[in-house]
Amino acid sequence: MTNSINEIEQYECLFVIGSNTTEAHPVIGGKMKRAARNGAKLIIADPRHIELVDHSALWLRLIPGTDAALVNGMMNIIINEGWADQEFIAKRCENYDELWEVVKKYTPDVVSKITSVPEDQLRAAAELYAKTTKSGIFYTLGITEHTTGTANVRNLANLAMVTGHVGVPHAGVNPLRGQNNVQGACDMGALPNVYSGYRNVTVPEHAAFFEDAWGVPMNRDLGLRIPEMFDAMHAGELKSMFIMGEDPVLTDADANHVRAAIESLEFLVVQDIFLTETAKHADVVLPAACYAEKDGTFTNTERRVQRVRKAVDAPGEARADWEIVCDLATRMGYPMSYDSPADIFEEIRRLTPTYRGMDYERVDACGLQWPCPTPDHPGTQVLHEDTFPRGRGQLCGVEYEAPAELTNADYPILLTTGRMLYQYNISTRQSPILDGLAPCEMTEINPVDAANIGVATGGKVRVSSRRGSVVTTANVTERVPPGTMFMTFHYAETPVNELTNSAFDPISKTAEYKVSAVKIEKA
Q1: Which of 139, 172, 183, 508: disulfide with 3, CB 3.0–4.6 Å?
Q2: Rounded CA gap, 502 and 505, in Å?
Q3: Which of 403, 393, 497, 419 is nearest to 29 (CA)?
């Protein structure tokens, strides 16, 4: 997030796109509802009637996968009406002419045909977002889980820069991270192309810095991303894998392809708190402690580094992740010796400039937001106040591209996927209370589509794509429009990712979970 969670209730306009916030991020969703009660105007761009729609000033019910066209249409109106912040653009941005060459083609009538959003709603959204001072963008996986996910994010940055809604409180571009320490994992270099602090592994000075710190030569080649790993397994080029806190058999797109790849491995190790669907395929399972059974830090979606404190002992042979990793490294020839997570955090702050001003004592009370470069720095609530990391912000024209898979006569329904409030990924299925609240998948199907196959709520339907087929329970509802259906990925009994398309974004390699063509039949 460029901004902070505690600002949300003081916003005047929130543009929420591709985010079912009250279910996927309920604490932040609650703040958005309070902002609405305080007078803020919510613009919700979502094909489903999510809870935030009931609190919104505008609901843009776009066709899944048409986000880039929607944002281009808003910018077309903003620029043509003179609502763009030309002073900010001139002072802080570059490539404005290139952006306009693309955006000028996306007139309201063109965009309405692509997205199904009426022209008057598009114009109202553009005016409300651009002409309100405290306007911020909030998005999640509904933006990124597309073959054009990176382009979608860049286009939201375009919208914020064109209107000057960045670098100030109560504005900005705010991605809401999908799990509690995703931000921290990325900060620490748990990516195939960077060290901690997002320093590229291919830059010689970066590699030399960590070689000096750790006393071993560093591999200076880019690593594989997730879809590339599965393809390499199928090709016999990747023969073993260590999976830690992840369940790709259930949660990754085109699950049959994923399962076959994992079964082709010569050796698989899974480190997790439960015997997951992936762990059932493992040669070795290492039982890990959960969040309440260990000490350390998490870095949340607003870049806040916070303490995690052990509350109870881990059961059985379960151990903290850092202890397991250190023992493995030592047995593999690189001695790792730390007395505690505090020792590890000292190394983090020493090697990571954005964390350098932090220590356990400083983050103990309520955490600190990076960048925090010095011990007397208060942390950073708002990013990019004076400049961007590259200097000027780079505006970049983004053309609308259709999803990789479209509906046809054989597969006439568009399937989109997401989360529900009562389950969290797959681990909460272990809780009898939570599982009692939502014990099975309730697939959302529009009454028109349900009538076509003769099914009512509670009836069984078979959902099939080019990749697989599952039987699930129908929830006939107007929450989804005709021709669109919705499922979650929480249930091993109805593994929706056997249906989803593994086509991925060429830059991030994120699969297109949000758009798959399927057919439905009464089961």
Answers
A1: 172
A2: 10
A3: 419
CATH, domain range 413-522: 2.40.40.20
Domain boundaries, the chain: 5-176, 182-369, 413-522
Asked whether the beta carbons of 362 and 356 are under 8 A apart, the reply is no
CATH topology for the 182-369 domain:
Rossmann fold (3.40.50)
Measured between alpha carbons, how far is 125 from 41 in angstroms, rounded to an integer?
10
Bond before 371 cis per omega within 30 degrees: yes
| Fold adopted by 5-176 | Dimethylsulfoxide Reductase; domain 2 (3.40.228)
pLDDT tens track, the chain, 523 positions: 999 999 999 999 999 999 999 999 999 999 999 999 999 999 999 999 999 999 999 999 999 999 999 999 999 999 999 999 999 999 999 999 999 999 999 999 999 999 999 999 999 999 999 999 999 999 999 999 999 999 999 999 999 999 999 999 999 999 999 888 999 999 999 999 999 999 999 999 999 999 999 999 999 999 999 999 999 999 999 999 999 999 999 888 899 999 999 999 999 999 999 999 999 999 999 999 999 999 999 999 999 999 999 999 999 999 999 999 999 999 999 999 999 999 999 999 999 999 999 999 899 888 999 999 999 999 999 999 999 999 999 999 999 999 999 999 999 999 999 888 877 766 677 788 887 888 888 999 999 999 999 999 999 999 999 999 999 999 999 999 999 999 998 888 888 999 998 899 999 989 898 999 999 999 9
Is 285 exposed, middle or buried (CB count within 10 Å of its CB: 0-12, 13-18, 19+)? middle
- Helices marked H in 215-276: 226-234, 248-251, 255-263
Q: What's the CA dihedral at 340, 341, 346, 349 to 10 degrees? A: 170
Neighbours of 428 (CB within 10 A): 15
Region at 117 (left for phi over 0; alpha for psi -120 to 50; beta for the rest): beta
Q: Which of 202, 165, 176 is nearest to 75 (CA)?
A: 165
Which residue has tokens 């798959």? 516
Please report which helix (H) or strand (E) contains residue 103, including its range. helix 96-103
- Dist CA 457 CA 315 (whole Å): 41
Task: Report how far residue 449's alpha carbon sits from residue 480's, in angstroms, rounded to the nearest whole number.
Answer: 10
What backbone phi and psi angles, to 5 degrees, belong to 498? Answer: -75, -15
